[in-house]
Specification:
The protein is 67% helix and 13% strand. Strands 1, 2, 3, 4, 5, 6, 7, 8 and 9 form a nine-stranded mixed sheet that branches. Among the domains are: 215 residues, Methane Monooxygenase Hydroxylase, Chain G, domain 1 (Up-down Bundle), CATH 1.20.58; 154 residues, 2-Layer Sandwich (Alpha-Beta Plaits), CATH 3.30.70.1230. It is rod-shaped, with a radius of gyration of 58 Å. The protein has 554 residues and is an alpha+beta fold.
Length: 554
């Protein structure tokens, strides 16, 4: 349940952070669009400036066309519409902004109206410039050349007139021209010249006030108003964006801490799992984690198996409380099992006070571990003696063979273990340590696979057929030459011991008994053989008797 909760928490946290990050990215995109509005405002300002420049450029004379002014006017409208579209795309809920945009559009429309008025009056000026000179020229050719030139000079002055006082004088001259005593035949021409001159003068005199009115249209103020509203909105969004980013950072940091806590719990859980399921077993199976282990996963390989069992544990338990027995077993196992891992082995299974260890490397590792266990037990007994407790003793059985390693059980409850006849042999050999009075017994298959046999001291003690097995097993005793004086004595007497065994196998029980009797005081195995010799001397041998010892008990 805890691992499911942790997985759900991580998944939910990851989803939340992903959604929050996507939301923040979306806000960042909106923020970038807000920043782009500044460019749009600059574009509108520049378009307004260019329109004013084009109008000022044509203020002092008649132009042949208004294309540049029209383009500048259209450009201003386009930029204003683009700005309005950008603002609308951002969906800014600001009434002041809507009002400012509307005001900007009104001012731009006013400028466009003035541009159209300029264009209309310019057309009138252009017509006067082309029509009246032609009319006067025709009149001068056919009627009065001097009068035609006078009228034309007055008209041309209207085209370049900029001074208001001069305009008053020119108007008086034109009005006197209208009242001059022309013939009736010339009344039509006289009227046209005078009226066109007056109209041109009127247009010229009105351009300056119109220009001032045009330039006074507050487009720039409207743009500034829009910009101020947008700056206010940008500041509000920046504050919101900063708060959102801080919240996201806080959430990410909280999620990081949560993930770290969960990760540390998983690390602790994995360490605990390693205490229950040896990862060395996973390595042997070629798997990295328990998730890779499936029902029926197995592998066959040669392994050295060691069984270790505490002597007289059942008798000892009778005098203790269950809690005391539990503490006692943990103290004992904690003292001796580190020697297993120290020599490239691992404990595959605990069974009360006993355990089974595996050594996938060489059988030398198992023998070194056995010697280390003997030393660790000796140190534990010293501590127990200081507390007034009894000494402990154990038996170790070692065998090497091809075994099956893998997961057994059923789909809902599995266990990684090792199976094979070699496991049974190791277990039976450990049981024989009680009978032979030895701490460590190993089989011939283990001895034959030693890579550095000269580093160890062992002696052949018997050929046996344990309970439940058909094939006999050659037994060797491992001697601890480092600290056991008894084992050192056994090593010195090994030639005599092997000579006595030869007499025993040749059914020379009396000769064998003589030697065994000399060795029995310091060698439980010799004492066992002596008792066998005495019994065999008293009984009649079967015709098929062999020196192989058959055992009917474990």
């Amino acid at each position: 349940m805890r691992s499911s909760w942790a997985g759900f928490t991580l998944a939910a946290g990851s989803m939340f952070l992903g959604m929050a990050w996507a939301w923040l990215v979306a806000r960042d995109v909106a923020w970038e669009k807000m920043q782009n509005l500044n460019n749009e405002i600059r574009e509108v300002t520049y378009a307004d400036f260019m329109l004013n420049l084009e109008v000022l450029r044509i203020r002092s004379g008649v132009v042949s066309h208004y294309d540049d002014v029209s383009r500048a006017s259209n450009k201003l409208s386009e930029r204003a519409e683009s700005l309005a579209a950008e603002v609308k795309g951002l969906q800014i809920p600001e009434a002041d902004l809507e009002h400012a945009l509307l005001n900007l559009q009104v001012q731009i429309n006013a400028k466009r109206a003035f541009v159209e008025s300029f264009q209309a009056q310019n057309s009138i000026l252009r017509n006067s410039e082309s029509y009246l000179p032609a009319l006067l020229d025709d009149y001068g050719k056919h009627h009065n050349q001097e009068l035609a030139q006078l009228v034309q000079s007055l008209y041309l002055r209207t085209l370049v007139l900029t001074d208001h006082e001069a305009g008053k004088l020119l108007r008086a001259q034109l009005e006197s021209l209208v009242a001059s005593p022309w013939t009736l035949a010339l009344d039509d021409i006289k009227t046209k010249v005078a009226l066109h001159g007056l109209k041109t003068l009127e247009i010229r005199q009105n351009i300056q006030p119109m220009l001032r009115t045009f330039l006074d249209i507050p487009v720039h103020d409207a743009i500034t108003q829009v910009d101020q509203v947008l700056v206010k909105e940008q500041a509000a969004r920046e504050r919101t964006r900063e708060r959102s980013r801080n919240i996201l950072y806080l959430a990410a940091f909280s999620f990081f801490l949560l993930s770290l806590v969960i990760l540390l719990r998983f690390i602790r859980l994995n360490r605990k799992i390693k205490n229950f399921v040896p990862y060395e077993m996973l390595n042997l199976l070629g798997k990295k984690t328990l998730l890779d282990i499936e029902y029926g996963t197995s592998i066959q390989r040669e392994v050295t198996v060691m069984f270790v069992d505490l002597r007289d544990f059942s008798r000892t338990c009778e005098t203790r409380k269950p809690s005391e027995n539990f503490a006692f077993v943990n103290e004992y196992l904690a003292a001796i099992t580190p020697g297993i891992q120290k020599h490239n082995g691992f404990v595959s299974q605990f069974s009360g006070d006993g355990f089974m260890a595996l050594f996938p490397g060489s059988s030398d590792d198992a023998l070194n571990a056995a010697l280390n266990l003997i030393q660790a037990l000796s140190e534990l007994n010293q501590r127990r003696h200081s507390r007034g407790d009894d000494s402990l003793a154990f038996g170790i059985g070692i065998n090497t063979s091809e075994l099956m390693l893998g997961a057994i059980g059923h789909q809902k409850r599995m266990e990684c273990t090792v199976l094979g006849n070699g496991v049974n042999i190791a277990a039976r050999v450990e049981g024989l340590t009680r009978i032979y009075g030895c701490e460590v017994l190993l089989t011939e298959s283990t001895v034959l696979r030693l890579q550095r046999a000269s580093d160890f001291h062992f002696r052949l003690i018997d050929r046996v057929r344990p309970k439940g097995l058909q094939e006999p097993v050659q037994l060797y005793e491992l001697l601890d030459m480092r600290q056991s004086s008894v084992d050192q004595e056994k090593a010195r007497n090994d030639l005599k011991f092997q000579q006595a065994r030869s007499f025993y196998q040749e059914q020379k029980f009396q000769e064998a008994a003589v030697i065994f009797s000399q060795l029995k005081d310091h060698d439980p195995v010799s004492d066992l053989y002596l008792r066998r010799c005495e019994e065999l001397q008293r009984s009649k041998l079967e015709p098929d008797w062999s020196a192989i010892a058959d055992f009917t008990v474990k």
